[in-house]
Specification:
Order of helices and strands: HEEEHEEHE
Distance between the termini: 41 Å
Largest sheet: 6 strands, mixed
Mean pLDDT: 94
Number of helices: 3
Low-confidence stretches: none
Helix content: 25-40%
Shape: globular
Structural class: alpha/beta
Strand content: 35-45%
Length: 119
């Protein structure tokens, strides 16, 4: 039920630096319940590398994943600031405002902003 979905973390991103991120929608096959998660890492050269890692993890838990787009995150944990910007060539631009709302749930004392700037 809802507990498995609750066990999936809203956000998994690197603690510092600028890196690619994707916004992913999780859904139970045939179910109404859905949620959005944010995943980003410097280890990913391309946005699809992140999706290829998260998709099998979520399928094991019984979710269908859809990548809703991507961009970049600039994370400065020292100054407690996160900037969301840019887009994914393959997946298109994520709705950064949605990403920011998810990030705010986790980084409650951060200043989090977004823009459609490329850099």
């Amino acid at each position: 039920g809802g507990t498995a979905m609750a066990a999936v973390r809203d956000v998994e991103v690197d603690p510092d630096g600028t890196f690619k991120y994707i916004l992913v929608r999780l859904q139970r096959p045939g179910g109404e319940e859905q949620r959005h998660i944010v995943r980003g890492t410097k280890a990913a050269e391309f946005h699809n590398h992140i999706f290829e890692k998260v998709n099998p993890e979520m399928e094991k838990l019984g979710y269908e994943c859809k990548c809703l787009g991507g961009g970049k995150i600039d994370h400065n944990s020292k100054d407690k600031k996160i900037r969301v910007f840019g887009l994914s060539t393959g997946y298109g631009k994520a709705d950064h405002s949605v990403t920011v709302e998810i990030l705010k749930k986790v980084y409650t004392d951060y200043e989090i902003t977004w823009s459609d700037d490329k850099k």
